[in-house]
Amino acid sequence: MWRDALLVAGKDLRIEGSSKVALNQVGPYSVVVLLLFGFAFDQDRPLLTEAAPGLFWIAVLFSAVLAVQRSFALETSDGAVDRLRLSRLEPAGIFLGKAAAVAVQLLLLEGLLALGVVVLFHARLAGAALLGASALVATAGIAAAGVAYAALSMGLRVRETLLPLLLAPVLAPIVLASTEAWRSALGVSTGDGWRWLGLLGGFAAIYLAGGVLSFGALMEET
Length: 222
Fold this sequence. Notes:
By secondary structure, this protein is mostly helical. It has one domain. The protein has helices at 2-19, 21-40, 45-76, 80-85, 91-121, 128-153, 159-185, 193-221. Helix 7 (159-185) runs antiparallel to helix 8 (193-221). The longest helix is centred in the first third of the chain and has 32 residues, at 45-76. It is globular, with a radius of gyration of 18 Å.
């Protein structure tokens, strides 16, 4: 399973590295989203700084939808998904590999967005360990849920519009928990950010386990 996951993740990352879709399209889109948030709250700087964690994770959610759709667009062209099904790779390995590739892309985008939050929203760092840990766990959960639901909607004609509708309610707990953890890490809130990190880890573990167990059936239904 782990060998297959490395093969699939390497394939997806090599394709993205040569096409540079994440760099040339998803990255600028996520920065524009942050700029629009900045314009909307420009008249109230204290409110903008306080809302920075939530705005960051909403921008990540928008970018994740694009990244997941791009990941499965590679498989739906020229019958590639059928070849993937017949390749004798473990379905769990395929799931983990695609989730890992999406997570790597999201982490790179999050680094860019974090810089934008510091520059545009004047955020300050109060807890680097909590910030990094919550970003890693939240990214794993977002990527896992995104890949699982993208596989569920891959065979449908309306998959481009259906996927955001499916993902938004599922990822709401991830966005909420990661926002509260970042509020504590950025010094916006005095709450216990590590408790939110524990909740975040629980949801991420559920999404990862669910994807590993169900991805084979989802691929057969596609």
